Structure formats: C-alpha cells, structure tokens
Amino acid sequence: MIGLLAAADTLVLFVAASLTKPLQPVLDAFTAQTGIVVQRESGASLEHVRKITDLHRVPDVLLLADADVFPRYLMPAHATWYADFARNRMVVAYTPKSRHAAEITADNWMSILQRGDVEIGRTDPRIAPVGYRTLLMFQLAERYYKKPGLAKSLFDHAPDRNIRPNAAELAALLAAGELDYIYDYQSVAESNGFRYVVLPPQIDLGDAHREKDYESVSVQVRGASPGTTTTVRGEPILYGMTIPRAAPHPVSADRFVAYLFSPAVVKQLRDAHVDMLANPVVHGSGAPAGLRGGAGR
Amino acid sequence: MASVIVAIVASLFLLFIVGPVAGLVGSGGGRGLASLVSDSELRQSLSLTALTATTATFLGILGGTPIAYVLARRTFRGKALLAAIMDLPLVIPHPVAGIALLLVLGRGTTLGSALYAAGLRVAGSPTGIICAMLFVSAPLYVSAARESFARVDARFEAVARTLGDDAWRAFRRVTLPLSARGLTAAAIVMWARAVSEFGAIVILTYNPKVASVLSYDRFTAFGLQEALPVAAVLVLLALVPLAALRALRKE
After folding, report:
1. Domain residue limits, chain A
2. Cα B14-B18-B23 angle, rounded to 5 deg
3. Model confidence over A68-99: pLDDT tens digits?
4. Contact A50/B at CB under 8 A
5. CATH topology of domain A90-233
6. Burial bucket for residue B247 (CB in 10 Å: 0-12, 13-18, 19+)
7. Nearest residue on chain B to A179, judged by CA atoms?
8. Nearest residue in B to A98, CA atom
9. Rg for chain A, CA atoms, rounded
10. Which of A47, A225, A226 sits opposite B220 (nearest CB)?
11. Domains of chain B
C-alpha cells in the first residue's frame, strides 16, 4: 500500500486564484494522461509568495497573476527565471440580479457605480495584483474620461467592508448576490458566467501596446514591512510562471510545463477565456529548453 | 513499568502542546506587547475581537441555556435529533459554515434582504462577525451547559416545586446556583472558541479585521516576522480567560 502511494508521482502547484477555475480541467487531463497526482493550492499572489519565502513550502510550478512578483520577491533566491504566459483585462462584472443591471453600459458605468445605492466590491490591493490594478484603472479612468476626482470617488464607492483577499472570493460574493458590481479580471467574469462592462483599452490594462500610457499612473501600496510603502506603476497585465529552484519534483514540473504550453492545451485555455500568449516570454536564465526562444506578444 | 510509559507519553504530549505556544511567545511576545502602544490597527482589531466575541457569548448564553436545560431534563420525540443539530456546527468546516450563513443571511436571500432593507448589514460588518462566532462556538456552550444541568440532581428541583415554586423560580433559586460554575466555565470556553475563529469570519466579514484575520493579513503581506507579534499578543491575552477558568476551579 505504501509502495503504491510512493509510486504515483506528484506535482505541487501554486496557482493564482483567478486562474484556478479554467485550469482545473487541464490539471485533470494531465493527471489522466501521465498518472501524476496534482496537489493544487489556489490563492492570491502574495499568499503564495509567503508560503515560499517564510514557510519554506516550495511548489513545483508557480503560476501568478503578476509577472512582476517574481523579480520583486522571488529572484534570485527562490527562482532564476520566469515566463510571461497570459494577458488579462480589468472589467466591471455583474449579474442579472445586480441593481441597475438593465441600464449599465460601457458609457454610463461610472455614473451608475457612483450612485451610492449599489454594493461594489474589489480585491485587497495589499496582497492581490487585481487589487492594485483596480486602483491603477481608477486613475487611468480619471484621465481618460477627463473627470478630476473620479479615481477617489470610485475608490470611496468600493468601501473596505466589500474588500476580499483574492479575485475568486470576490467573484463568490457577486455570485451569492452580496455585491452588485465587482472590479475583476475578464477571465474571472467569463469563467463564472458573469456579465461585464468592457472598459476602454486605454484604461483596462489589457493592451500590450499601451505600455507608455499605463506607465504614467502609479499607486502606493504597502511595502515589505509595516509603515513602508512601495510604488507600483501601471503596466499591461501579464501572468507569469516559474519552476522554483527548490522544486521538490523537478521531473514532474518539466513535464507539466511542456504540457501546459502544448498547442492543444493553449487552445483549451483560450476557449476557457484565458488570454494565453502565442509564445511564453522568458526572463532570466535556467528555464527549460522548450520554453526559451518565444517571440511573445 | 506501565506508569513510566504513561508518564513519558504524557510528557511528550505536554511538550507538543506547550512547545509551539512557548516558541510563539518567545519569538514575538516582547515585540508584540511593545507594538500595542504604537500599532493602532492592532489595538482596534483586538478590541473588535473582544467586543464581538463577548456579544456572541451573551447571545449564546441567552439562546443556548434553555436548549441545554431542555436537553438535560426533558425526554421528548426528536430529542436526539435536536442534540445532533446542536452539534452540527462543530463538524462543519469553517469556511463552509461561513458560506452556509451567507446563504441564509446574505443580501440576496429572503431573510437577508429584509435585514438589509431594515438597515442591518450582515456581511462586511461586526454583525457578520458575531453571527460567524455564534454559529461555530455556541455548540460548545450548549453541550457543556447541558452537562452542568444534568449534574444537578433533579430531585432538588422537584422538592422546590412541591414547596410552591413554579418552574422558573425553581430554576432560578435551585438549578442555577448549583450549576453556575459549570455554566461560567462553558461560557468561557465558548468565548475562547469565538476569539480564535477565522475561516467562517473571513467569508462573511474580511473588513473590519478581527485579530485572527489581522494576523493572517500581516503574514500574507509582510511575512512571518511581522505576523509573530500579533499572534504572540493574542496568546498572551488568551491567558486571561484561561486564568479565569483556573480561578473558578480553585474555589
């Protein structure tokens, strides 16, 4: 019995909350095909970072919603490379049960969300990328729509009590009817079957060609120790992944990465509303041979 | 020989319980207590925790005592079912308990929308925290209170009744004084359980943060070093109810 258990290979996977739902069928298929048992842990990016840096629980593969987290927290001590592999966009998600659901459009979303009779939720900017991306989007919206004070007003109308630690928990609240509108990723809205307002590409952080525009806004988020702050600049949303240096099952990790970026799986993820890059863009050194040399965007 | 083995096992078990706690207080205790002065977020969180746990405990005593008494004294159809229902929250995983509460008290439900319209917000408020605490810790009070009542000889109550007291008077003048220590101990256990709850609370109310949520938040955002003082302070403050329990037993 023990021998049987030891024989099944394992893959430990830490994955961004927003990616979990679309990824699950891929994991199931991977297990069916290879017999490798996948232990998946889902959560906000910083939750995963802390598990690695402070609790010394290292996964085989790490998939995060913000590629920037790798150089900021994990390199070089825990990883020597990372690869950008998917894009995403900010949207305003809602359901048919939401107040004013019948009225809201891409043109009037700001006024509806400032009305005060709707419950609006967002994610904690201190631990989840989607949280600070929401704040960056507010600022971009203020400039784009030329309405001074808009950023602060949108911020005030998504109060602390409606903040949740990660994108998936926020989506759960919307599904439960507890919230009317949430600021979340397009992929999360799609995979949960929510309706959503498509925001202009100038503000949704989804367009890889608008780096310069996005860069012009920034937010202060909590820094690495209490009382300190860090400046985060706007940039196109990029999901990143790596195999950490201390991965416990490197062979399984390599197999999974090869599987993840195989054309069939990329297509499967795209069908599940994950905007996969045509080829992953690798930074750093030591990545598996199959990944390197991607043309990217 | 047997007593030596028992002593060794008991010592190892004691070490297992004391070790982590001592380690926690040792690495974070001093800094934690010191930070109480400067860290207003920590102070607010601790007072919110104490307030909500105490409120939840009072509500638990109010609603749970009659149920405990009935379970201790009466026999009726469905008694076993009632007892099982009262124990259910203990076996439900905590986040699931939070979701269950949301499904009944959330804004999108019949009861919840009525509450919301009346101005009582459950999710995202201290009310939600109290509901989560009450749900997961009340069973502990009810089962301990039931034991306390059961240990009071029913004949004393019967004697009081024959002497002219009605049921409520007999309870107040006979049963209650005799079970008071047991009930107090039960309430303290419930309070301690309420203070340590995390999973159910986080589903209903993430902000404002009680101490358990704050320690997790500090850990996620800043790492172990910053989370330790919060945890250590919690442990030190938790000594208060424990000391109260000890004082009760000594009498």
Report:
1. 2-87+238-284, 90-233
2. 150
3. 899 988 999 999 999 999 999 999 999 999 99
4. yes
5. D-Maltodextrin-Binding Protein; domain 2 (3.40.190)
6. exposed
7. B107
8. B108
9. 19
10. A47
11. 29-250 (1.10.3720.10)
